[in-house]
Amino acid sequence: MQPVLLWLRRDLRLADNPALTRALDTGQPVIPVYLHAPEEEAPWFPGAASRWWLHHSLNALSCALTAAGSRLILRQGGSLECLLQLLDETGAGQVIWNRTYEPALIQRDRRIKAALKDRGVRVESCNSALLFEPWTVSNKSGEPYRVFTPFWKACCAKGLPDDVATLPESITAPAHWPVSDDLKQWALLPRISWDQGLAQRWQPGEAGAHHALERFLAHGVLTYKTGRDLPGQPGTSRLSPHLHFGEIGPRQLIRACQRLQQQGIGTEGSTSVAAFIREIGWREFAFHLLFHFPQTPEHPLDQRFEHFPWRKPEDYADDLAAWQHGLTGIPLVDAGMRELWHTGWMHNRVRMITASLLVKNLGIPWQEGARWFWDTLVDADLASNTLGWQWTAGCGADAAPYFRVFNPVLQGERFDGQGAYIRHWVPELEHLPDRYLHAPWTAPASLIPPAYPRPRVDLGASRKTALAAWEQLKEHSRLSPGGSVP
Q1: Which domains does the chain have, with CATH numbers?
Q2: Is 452 within any annotated ligand binding site?
């Protein structure tokens, strides 16, 4: 029998994997393959944290496939070349994969699909990553949505899909297996051991994803609506890296949430579960925007911001480095940036606050922050990363108004009132009294820890500068031909 090549990408799971299900339905032997071609994702090559996760996720997937009577074939090189070579080696007559939505990968997949069809190879692609693919949701004019609320209402009106394929008991193996690379040869892990914090916090792989979901359902989801804003408490799901690598899918999350809602969990619980489902909707919206506006990872959706008076790289280099390493002298921001460096993750509210300081107080282009997050986040996702940074900068769809500037002192007092988060990640301030913790520069000189830096920026004065820059941009848009300000 002719085997089928199952090309795995960001769908590193066996349960609810539509491409795997389709391959099994053919009744043919299945050869699961993963092709490592990071250059095909240019200019958004996988960052160091993503490579670390990928190594461990592939290792976990390999073990799961072996337990199912199969194995994972690894190849490195151009995807089309590797597929053609595998087709020749195995005699396979069909290739099946799940779709990806990053602009560079969409173009690559189109070229590969056309080339394979020209050779007479059957090709099929499926949806494993989204509830609704970007081209299936549009407004009454047939245009893509730019605002989240009507987008999500349209999705909900369609009915949120919760059909989930179960874990296959076994996978039919071919008579002969092609040669596989050794995962260690890909050198995905860091040469200098900086990943201890990641290893302590995360369990990459499908099993790790389900353990994270079970913990969240048991201890976090029923208070998610309020708990998600408190960085010092485990109030969020931490499922984002598992979703990014496809170790769990959104339909599985919807199914789990709907089952919970059917158990009579009370008003607060129901409200919190609904809030979590809405966050899944924001992920959908991010992919919707990236698909329809593929220029946005580099360029603002609001084209007026192409003329924004950002500081020059030679002027902000020191401030950018201080921000990257959690040395701004603003405790909540520094805590977030250090959490990111040590764990590959940052609490969502703190992401907004750290981004706001970079863009609006330090006057540094949002693209600089997006690139740093891309390299350091284990959940680095081009769609969500782009949406988040453009939202904070005020230049994207459904963006926060530019004049909204997060005050990290007030945010810290409101959401980390006892200072648990700051004291954990900024131990220099561990013994500072609560009244000074969020603004240590206001403390008597004798109480200020000498090891902790003074603020890189005056929050009040820089806010005024940001607002003045916004007024300057509006005036430029008003005077430019065709320019307008809503």
Answers
A1: 4-128 (3.40.50.620), 130-165+206-292 (1.25.40.80), 303-478 (1.10.579.10)
A2: no
* Token pair of 479 as six digits: 């005077």
- Cα torsion through 68, 74, 78, 80, rounded to 10: -30
Burial class (CB in 10 A: 0-12, 13-18, 19+), 95: buried
Flag whether 236 is marked binding. yes
* Core vs surface per residue 335-365: b (16+ CB within 10 A) or e: bbbbbbbbbbbbbbbbbbbbbbbbbbbbbbb
- Residue pointed to by tokens 């040869």: 185
CB atoms within 10 A of CB 473: 21
Structure tokens at 357: 């300081």
Share of the chain above pLDDT 70, in %: 97
Give the C-alpha separation, 59 to 374, whole Å.
Answer: 23
> Which residues are identified as catalytic?
279, 282, 310, 348, 366, 389
Q: What does the angle CA 193 – CA 373 – CA 469 come to, to the nearest 5 degrees?
A: 145
Q: pLDDT, tens digit, for every residue of 237-249?
A: 999 999 999 999 9
pTM beyond 0.70, yes or no = yes
Q: pLDDT (tens digit, 9 = 90+) per residue, 383-434?
A: 999 999 999 999 998 766 667 899 999 999 999 999 999 999 999 999 999 9
Can you tell me whether residue 125 is helix, strand or coil?
strand
Does 207 belong to an annotated binding site? no
